[in-house]
Write a structure and sequence with these properties.
alpha/beta, 5 strands, 53% helix, 13% strand, globular, binds shikimate-3-phosphate
């Protein structure tokens, strides 16, 4: 249970679309007495529009600006939380470590393709073109690794992924 004025450090989950950041994030928050925040949901709440609408009406560039702004807010104002980021945040925001301890949920391209059902793909404008999505995946891999303090194999069930994070980050639990 998160307590009043709990100022535990944040944990920031990064990784490509479909890596399970939100599922793992919710579970990790419960297990570590933190709140769960989803950066995409924060951006949507501030903009008053869904991510796919932002992409359609304002374009990717505007969305990336919103991500940068959200990251600044998280670094300045948020403590005691598990934060799941959109798959592109680690590539547009340098020094995510300013927000908290960064954990990379690593998954192969094949596994990502397998996990993202047609319904899940429809919610993600950048997954409509498979070739382009794969290109981004290749482009981001090193960035995820560079930003991460801990890299976990996200192909396992969410509770095992959470356990590994807790075991490897002594300050988390
Ligand atoms: C994006 C990933 C999405 C969302 C937006 C852009 C990306 O989040 O932020 O559609 O650039 O990889 P998820 O990783 O939660 O799908």
């Amino acid at each position: 249970m998160a307590t009043d004025c709990d100022c535990a450090e944040n944990i920031v989950l990064i990784g490509f679309m479909g890596a399970g950041k939100s599922t793992v994030g919710r579970l990790l928050a419960q297990k570590s007495g933190r709140y769960f925040l989803d950066a995409d949901a924060l951006i949507e709440s501030e903009a008053g529009r869904r991510i796919d609408e932002i992409f359609k009406k304002e374009g990717e560039h505007a969305f990336r600006e919103m991500e940068r702004r959200c990251a600044r807010w998280l670094a300045a104002c948020v403590r005691g939380s598990v934060i799941s980021t959109g798959g592109g945040m680690a590539s547009v925001v340098e020094h995510l470590a300013r927000i908290g301890t960064v954990v990379y949920l690593k998954l192969s391209w094949e596994e990502i393709e397998r996990r993202l059902t047609p319904q899940e793909r429809r919610k993600r404008p950048l997954f409509s073109d498979l070739k382009e999505a794969k290109r981004r995946f290749e482009q981001r891999r090193n960035l995820y690794e560079t930003q991460a303090r801990l890299i976990v194999d996200a192909s396992r069930p969410p509770d095992e992924v959470v356990e590994e994070i807790i075991q490897n980050l002594p300050t988390v639990s």
